């Protein structure tokens, strides 16, 4: 993946952003508007479009929200090809990985349409406004929340009264799990890796204990917090365990967390967003630091459809 400087895409891959001490630090999203009834971005079916990649866990949370809330007809999508290229995220000219809305062949063209002098990383997901031809947001946490608030008057995924509990889970899960796997996989020193893996597994074991006595994370119902945890769980055994050295245990070794993950998978709309072979192709694509030969492993075989002890549905 390259980076855009003053509207020109630089093919040279700057590598993951690192801090002193070799710790990975995720770049901040810079395009952050909101859809609200007051506007200028008002909630209208058919107006907004999502640019995503199946293998991107940040895009996955937006796809899960869209699917669980039944917004597939209200919000269209373009799916980028899963492999890393020197043009970053790219599209075919037709087929499943084409962009039918703007007809672009690379994600950086979406950013330069919005801001001809854009400087920064070219990331997915991006929420695009077809009416004004601009980017609403390139921050998945905001996109996920705004889909829930603006397009679901019943606020089923962020119920009133549960916001604080959902936000507490979101913060911890973001730090230790969603971004924790990246801090492990992109660490450049032993110390940075050790610290990421310790935080990751402490929280995975804590979640396993919580889910021994709770059906979901918050309020005994499916909420946004579950949809923000799920993308990391979906990739854990096929990608992070091996590609990012998150190998103190597999998800399938943690009985309650694994039961919960499969129950989420069985909830309406979720299985269609899970693509294990694409995760492998993406996380094991060639990388000088992690996989110089680009060989994609065959296993492991993970049975997401095995029966579960719990059932999870949208209220
Ligand atoms: N803050 C962003 C981060 C998204 C992100 O890092 N996406 C990755 C794919 S999983 C990406 O597009 N990376 C390209 C790059 O960093 O050059 C969000 O959560 O929306």
CATH superfamily of the largest domain: Glutaredoxin
What distance lies between the first and last C-alpha atoms, to the nearest angstrom?
40 Å
How many structurally independent domains? 2
The number of helical elements comes to 9
- CATH class placement of the largest domain: Alpha Beta
CATH architecture of the largest domain: 3-Layer(aba) Sandwich
Which ions and ligands are bound to the chains? Answer: glutathione
Sheet with most strands: 4 strands, mixed
Mean pLDDT: 95
Give short descriptive properties of this protein.
315 residues, alpha+beta, Glutaredoxin, Glutathione S-transferase Yfyf (Class Pi), Chain A, domain 2, 2 domains, two-stranded antiparallel sheet, 37% helix, globular, binds glutathione
Describe the structure.
The protein has two domains: 3-151, Glutaredoxin (3-Layer(aba) Sandwich); 163-283, Glutathione S-transferase Yfyf (Class Pi), Chain A, domain 2, CATH 1.20.1050. It contains nine helices and six strands, in the order βββαβαββααααααα. The strands form two sheets. A four-stranded mixed beta sheet has the order 4-3-5-6, sandwiched between helices. Strands 1-2 form a two-stranded antiparallel ribbon. Helix 1 (57-68) packs parallel to helix 3 (140-151), helix 1 runs antiparallel to helix 7 (224-243) and helix 6 (190-213) crosses helix 8 (255-266). The chain has 315 residues and is an alpha+beta fold. Helices cover 37% and strands 8% of the residues. The structure holds glutathione. Glutathione is lined by residues 1, 29, 56-58, 88, 121-125, 138-140.
């Amino acid at each position: 993946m390259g980076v855009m400087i003053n509207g020109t895409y630089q093919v040279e891959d700057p590598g993951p952003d690192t801090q002193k001490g070799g710790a990975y630090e995720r770049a901040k999203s810079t395009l952050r508007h909101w859809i609200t009834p007051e506007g200028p971005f008002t909630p209208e079916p058919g107006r907004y479009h999502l640019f995503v990649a199946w293998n991107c866990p940040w895009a996955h949370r937006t796809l899960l929200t869209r699917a669980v809330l039944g917004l597939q007809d209200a919000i269209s999508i373009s799916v980028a090809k899963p492999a890393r290229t020197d043009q970053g995220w790219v599209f075919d000219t037709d087929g499943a990985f084409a962009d039918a809305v703007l007809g672009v062949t690379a994600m950086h063209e979406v950013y330069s349409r919005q801001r001809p002098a854009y400087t920064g990383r070219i990331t997915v997901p991006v929420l695009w406004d077809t009416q004004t031809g601009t980017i609403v947001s390139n921050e998945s946490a905001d996109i996920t929340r705004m889909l829930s608030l603006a397009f679901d008057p019943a606020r089923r995924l962020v119920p009133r009264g549960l916001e604080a509990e959902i936000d507490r889970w979101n913060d911890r899960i973001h730090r230790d799990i969603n971004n924790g796997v990246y801090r492990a996989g992109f660490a450049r020193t032993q110390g940075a890796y050790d610290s990421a893996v310790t935080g990751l597994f402490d929280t995975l074991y804590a979640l396993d204990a919580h889910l021994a006595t709770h059906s979901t994370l918050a309020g005994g119902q499916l909420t946004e917090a579950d949809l923000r945890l799920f993308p990391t769980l979906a990739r854990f055994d096929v990608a992070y365990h091996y590609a990012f050295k998150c190998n103190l245990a597999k998800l399938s070794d943690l009985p309650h967390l694994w039961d919960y993950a499969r129950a989420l998978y069985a909830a309406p709309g979720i299985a269609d967003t899970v693509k294990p072979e694409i995760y492998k192709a993406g996380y094991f694509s060639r990388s000088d630091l992690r996989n110089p030969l680009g060989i994609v492993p065959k296993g492991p075989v993970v049975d997401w459809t095995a029966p579960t002890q719990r059932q999870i549905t949208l209220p």
